[in-house]
Amino acid sequence: MVLAELGSRLKKALSSVSDEVILDEKAIKSMINDISVGLMESDVNVMLVGKMKKNIESQIDINNLPKGINKRNHVKQIVFEELCKLVDPGVKPYQMQKRREPNVVMFVGLQGSGKTTTCTKYAMYYARKGWRVALVCADTFRAGAFDQLKQNATKANIPFYGSYTESDPVKLAREGVKQFTDERFEIIIVDTSGRHKQEENLFEEMEQVSKAVNPNDVVFVMDSSIGQAAQDQAAAFKSRVSVGSVIVTKLDGHAKGGGALSAVAATSSPITFIGTGEQFDEFEEFDARGFVGRLLGMGHIPQLLKKAQEVMNIDKQKQTLENLKEGKYTVRDMREHFQMIMNMGPLTQLMSYIPGADKLMGKGAEQESSAQMKLIDDHHGLDER
Ligand code: GDP
């Protein structure tokens, strides 16, 4: 689970609401303080935290609650909603359209932010859902950029376009998009060059590529380790191209990711996905309510069901249910179930969708369980061959 430290701090603060014998003003104040300190330690901007604190205080009048209301749940609900507001800009991102013309999505961001890796993760995410997806490398600035995209795309089985010799990113982007449009691809992802810092050359090139391919969505990729500086960076990119969504990467490695997420939200940009590792499946849809729910250990059942539906073969499951009724459950059935669970993503991610599951599993237990499932799967695969 990303931002685990912040999560345990928030959970602890909220559980004090359940554990206090008498829930009075003093207990509420101390809970709000604990939450505020946790958020600031996760690098959330002091002003944003101050605003959230005021909002919570103004809604909780513990001595004058309407009769019949469960005080503890009421308090928790208010805190939950206010935490959601911190990471939810309330703006809807671009939705992929099924139509004759392709959905062209242009990726922008600084060098090293994880842009190329994220392009592949994004392509795989939609390819798994059945879309015909292709990748175009229009990064001619960084030596080896095309090789990296080619390697990633090959590994992920995604068609790609690029060149070792062409140095004009605008020409490459235009030609790549044209080729894949002619080939009737539904989603064409254009990876553009980055620079070490925000500079005029980068922005000019971005504008030209954008004019050439006329994207339906511009995705800004940002490294979470920059924390609160995310606000300036996101604003700078937004001022030059029409950024429609943001992907925040490397949330696995940073206790300060809360700062980046809330800073991006403060620029009214919707965060659509987060990167949670170097592997292509370490990539999660971002939904503010679900994210905060998981952070607080409340899980997110709708997301779990959605993931299950994506990998489940319904006809096969009906057959398995029939077999189970007759007391039949073979090793083959078990292997199929293990494979299905593994296809849903890393086990650590799955467990966080189940309310309270974090309390059931000890630290490191998830990795151990994943490894054991994989071992059983590999062994059985060998036996069958
Ligand atoms: P680009 O220069 O923006 O295209 O960045 P790359 O895609 O080359 O990524 C830079 C480094 O960040 C690579 O080593 C990636 O494996 C790594 N990376 C990308 N996304 C993530 C993430 O979500 N978590 C972690 N831990 N590493 C990531």
From TrEMBL:
<dbReference type="InterPro" id="IPR036891">
    <property type="entry name" value="Signal_recog_part_SRP54_M_sf"/>
</dbReference>
<feature type="compositionally biased region" description="Basic and acidic residues">
    <location>
        <begin position="375"/>
        <end position="385"/>
    </location>
</feature>
<dbReference type="InterPro" id="IPR013822">
    <property type="entry name" value="Signal_recog_particl_SRP54_hlx"/>
</dbReference>
<feature type="region of interest" description="Disordered">
    <location>
        <begin position="362"/>
        <end position="385"/>
    </location>
</feature>
<feature type="domain" description="SRP54-type proteins GTP-binding">
    <location>
        <begin position="270"/>
        <end position="283"/>
    </location>
</feature>
<dbReference type="InterPro" id="IPR022941">
    <property type="entry name" value="SRP54"/>
</dbReference>
<keyword id="KW-0694">RNA-binding</keyword>
<comment type="function">
    <text>Component of the signal recognition particle (SRP) complex, a ribonucleoprotein complex that mediates the cotranslational targeting of secretory and membrane proteins to the endoplasmic reticulum (ER).</text>
</comment>
<dbReference type="InterPro" id="IPR036225">
    <property type="entry name" value="SRP/SRP_N"/>
</dbReference>
<dbReference type="GO" id="GO:0030942">
    <property type="term" value="F:endoplasmic reticulum signal peptide binding"/>
</dbReference>
<dbReference type="InterPro" id="IPR003593">
    <property type="entry name" value="AAA+_ATPase"/>
</dbReference>
<dbReference type="GO" id="GO:0006616">
    <property type="term" value="P:SRP-dependent cotranslational protein targeting to membrane, translocation"/>
</dbReference>
<keyword id="KW-0378">Hydrolase</keyword>
<dbReference type="GO" id="GO:0005829">
    <property type="term" value="C:cytosol"/>
</dbReference>
<keyword id="KW-0733">Signal recognition particle</keyword>
<keyword id="KW-0547">Nucleotide-binding</keyword>
<dbReference type="GO" id="GO:0005786">
    <property type="term" value="C:signal recognition particle, endoplasmic reticulum targeting"/>
</dbReference>
<dbReference type="Pfam" id="PF02978">
    <property type="entry name" value="SRP_SPB"/>
</dbReference>
<dbReference type="InterPro" id="IPR027417">
    <property type="entry name" value="P-loop_NTPase"/>
</dbReference>
<comment type="similarity">
    <text>Belongs to the GTP-binding SRP family. SRP54 subfamily.</text>
</comment>
<dbReference type="InterPro" id="IPR006325">
    <property type="entry name" value="SRP54_euk"/>
</dbReference>
<dbReference type="InterPro" id="IPR042101">
    <property type="entry name" value="SRP54_N_sf"/>
</dbReference>
<dbReference type="InterPro" id="IPR000897">
    <property type="entry name" value="SRP54_GTPase_dom"/>
</dbReference>
<protein>
    <recommendedName>
        <fullName>Signal recognition particle 54 kDa protein</fullName>
    </recommendedName>
</protein>
<dbReference type="GO" id="GO:0003924">
    <property type="term" value="F:GTPase activity"/>
</dbReference>
<keyword id="KW-0963">Cytoplasm</keyword>
<keyword id="KW-0687">Ribonucleoprotein</keyword>
<keyword id="KW-0342">GTP-binding</keyword>
<dbReference type="InterPro" id="IPR004125">
    <property type="entry name" value="Signal_recog_particle_SRP54_M"/>
</dbReference>
<dbReference type="Pfam" id="PF00448">
    <property type="entry name" value="SRP54"/>
</dbReference>
<keyword id="KW-0256">Endoplasmic reticulum</keyword>
<dbReference type="GO" id="GO:0008312">
    <property type="term" value="F:7S RNA binding"/>
</dbReference>
<dbReference type="GO" id="GO:0005783">
    <property type="term" value="C:endoplasmic reticulum"/>
</dbReference>
<dbReference type="GO" id="GO:0005525">
    <property type="term" value="F:GTP binding"/>
</dbReference>
<dbReference type="Pfam" id="PF02881">
    <property type="entry name" value="SRP54_N"/>
</dbReference>
